[in-house]
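ESCALATION

Customer reports they have been waiting on this structure for their group meeting. Please prioritize. Original submission:
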Amino acid sequence: MTNKLLIGSANQDKARELTSLLAGLDCEVCSLADLTDVDAPEENGSTFADNALLKATFYSKHFGLPCVADDSGLCVDALNGAPGVYSARYAGEGCSYADNNEKLLDALAPYLWHERTARFVCCAAFVAPAEDAEATVHVEEGTVEGYIAMEAYGKNGFGYDPVFVPKGSDVTFAEMTAAEKHTISHRGRAFDKMAAFLRERYAAV
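Update from on-call: job pushed to the front of the queue and completed.
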């Protein structure tokens, strides 16, 4: 029987990106769009790892399949790590990417360039249903250090990409191509490590 691996994300753009990133595994990668509808679990964890594990565990149990999911966000030193796990809803429920970026830039208006240090963090979690007593759980993390720009630049990417300048660069993520961003991004780093783990797990016998 063909092994299946579920991408636990309702975001189809992300699901396609992760499916591509995990290409080459000895299994069939599927997304939530390939299965029956299910309401997403509430992401109420206090850390990125908590939320990634929450999603992977929920979808793995619901569908009885091994599942990989992630949670990520932006942590700004001058704001004591905010927006952190609230990155997607920093400006309030239902807010847009532009709303979040505007609130962040307003909060950092008094700070000079060298005081605007920040990092993107991504935690990727894999959960497989219990074969014996316990489920298989594996977590990887990727981070990228950088700074928050004085204003938004670029039209590519999404989220906080227009205001985040990775260390060693003079342009924001939103000014890079997808390929350029992937080589250094938090998500790219986390899933490169997760892919290595999964390739070993799903290696052809």
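Sent to customer with the following note: The radius of gyration is 18 Å.
Escalation resolved.
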